[in-house]
Amino acid sequence: MPREGSPFQGLGTVAVKELSDNLSSVRMLVLEVLIVLTALAALYGVIDSLRQNTAEDPFLLLRLFTVSRAPLPSFVAILGFLIPLMAIGLGFDAVNGEHIRRTLSRILAQPIYRDALLMGKFLAGLATLAISLAALWLMVIGLGLIFLGVPPGGEEIARSLAFLVIAVFYAAVWLALAMLFSIVFRSAATAALVALGVWLFLTILWPMLAPALAQVISPPDPRYAMLGLDTPDTAIWGQELARLSPNDLFGEAMLAVLSPTTRSLGPVFLDQLRGAVMGAPLPLGESLVIAWPQTVALIAGTIVLFVASYVMFQRQEVRA
Amino acid sequence: MSGAIDETGTTDGEFVIAARNLTKRYGMVNVVDGINFDIVKGEVFGLLGPNGAGKTTTILMMLGLTDISSGKVDVLGYDPARSPLQVKRRVGYLPDSVGFYEHMTAAENLSYTAKLMGLSRVERARRIVAALARVRLLEVADKRVATFSRGMRQRLGLAEIIVKQAEIAILDEPTSGLDPQATQEFLGLIGELRSEGVTVLLSSHLLDQVQRVCSRVALFQAGRIVLMGAVADLARQVLGAGYVVEVEADGAALARRLATVPGVSKVETLGEDRFRMTADRDVRPDAARAVVAANGSLRRLSVDEPSLEAIYARYFHMQTQPSRGTLHAA
User: Fold this and answer.
1) pTM of this structure
2) Is residue B25 a part of any domain in this protein?
3) CA gap A15, A122 in Å, rounded
4) When you count CB atoms within 10 A of the terminal residue's CB, does the N or C end of chain A come out lower?
5) B113 within a domain of the structure (yes/no)
């Protein structure tokens, strides 16, 4: 049925209001402090170890993101773990919060469509995450300049910017998931709990379950096992299953973008490597091509989840 | 009284809302079951009935906030299912137990919705100050809503409708949970809106309040409108006669004289000098004249206006002998 007027009417107003709410909320402050402190700890260890062996590494700045020193994981791994937490923290009460505060019907009685409310909240959440991530990114670059004393090259900046963009898409998936739950569940506590459950499952349990499932689907060939090799089919299944988790996609994309020597993200046969100069960095364009499918998958996941939220929100009754 | 409405509650003015066979189904249940009504510009129309009778659902359908299962409703010439923005630009809505953003001030809350209405910055500031002054919240404009009482929140909700300069104000249970003074104050504000020509739709289960402000009422029961019209007409229809006048006076053969007053259907003698007259209109002036004509001294003259409460109770009593359809006054 055709509707009169633009679905985006009021979008800007909603987004600006939600953004200012997000940025001034205590919840956001706590999450930011948590992430900054963890990231600082990781970076401190990295900087320490990098100073001791300043080899002639052309991508010194990128090492800040990827090198880990026990007991802490790398900066990127920490982000892969904490970005979902931040996104869930922003989104879990987006819609049911309006129900609980009984503001929903009052706002929807203004001349706007529901589209504007949902989209505005999503964009505001995404902008909040982008601002936080950009601040973190600047912090890493700044610390690199101060403690390593090596000015970053153009390609390093470009690669780290690619990191920033992919991290925002990664955050978008989780934000969309949290908002979907905020529509499905009328209680904010339930929505938060379910979202956190999914997050823990996908980041901790799924990486362990995926190889096991792969072995069930495609049992390893004993002939490969005798040679101490992985069965190609099993390995591929394992990887494909693991990729169902956004966490895995983010990790792979980061590997391609931040470690320029990465040539492939899947299993490779030896004959495919014929003629390759091992250890030589790929040009930026090639690395981006390798990370592209993962990035697209993250964007697609966001869109699918957002569309699901949209459909559910349109059909939902306004009354509490 | 608005000029558009005449004695009998029928109308010669323009309809601002017209519902035809409006129906809302959830599964197999008709929550709103084929209702028809017309609302005239400038009147205060009451939607009455117990909770769950379909009042709020009817309101949400008028605003385009819930789908219409069948039938249609026309609001200010627009179909809310097709042109919800046009409707919502002109209609103000105060939901049942309205909520505000607690961390924002009263002025900020209004400013947010005013932006959603698409008002310019200058216009917003001007209208918000004026509206807050109208509902007597100007001195707390910069206080956070978290500190507001329920009465203040309801008034803030009304301020939002004033900011919108709505042609129709739809108020859902606006006085439930308010203390008597806050209720009085709120009903006063509704009266002010009405005197400015705003059409007011008021849903309530508190009958005496509705009676005080409404020019016409519709009585909902299980998704249908079972009674509709001006309170006095409903009284005549359901109770037989609408007015009960008590006279305390002495004079020769007063009871007989009072019985001759036109419109009086019955005179009961309550005591030596007390009489109760049942009439189809307010017969106090005629009763006074009759007492004076009998050379009596008039000590007290009081009238019980027909109460909705009585109509309501009698109607549902009559329902035990079932009769279908809507009773229309006049």
Assistant:
1) 0.86
2) yes
3) 8
4) N
5) yes
Q: What is the CATH number of the domain that holds B290?
A: 3.30.70.100
Are A107 and B113 inside 8 Å of each other by CB?
Answer: yes
Interface confidence, given as ipTM, is 0.86
B230 and B297 in a single domain? The answer is no
For chain B, percent of residues with pLDDT exceeding 90: 51
Number of domains in chain B: 2
CB proximity A105 to B under 8 Å: yes
- Taking only the tens place, the pLDDT of each residue in B7-39 is 333 444 688 999 999 999 988 899 999 999 999
Alpha helical stretches, state H, A114-231: 114-148, 154-184, 188-200, 206-217, 222-226
Mean pLDDT of B238-257: 78
For residues A246 and A214, the answer to whether their CB atoms sit within 8 Å is no
Q: Is residue B314 part of a domain?
A: no
B311 belongs to a structural domain: no
| Distance between A100 CA and the closest CA of chain B, angstroms | 9
Q: Cβ separation of B101 and A103 shorter than 8 Å?
A: yes
Average pLDDT of chain B, as a whole number: 85
d(CA B51, CA B78): 28
Domain that holds residue B212: 15-236
3-state SS assignment for residue B168: strand
Banded pLDDT at A56 (limits 50, 70, 90): low
Task: Please give the structure tokens belonging to residue A157.
Answer: 């900046």
Residue A106, chain B, CB below 8 Å: the answer is: yes
Flag if B118 and A2 touch (Cβ within 8 Å).
no
Q: Which of B211, B236, B261 is the last residue of a domain?
A: B236
Select from A237, A202, A230 the least CA-distant residue to A216: A237
Tell me whether residues A106 and B160 touch, CB distance under 8 A: yes
Nearest to A49 by CA among A31, A25, A74, A27: A74
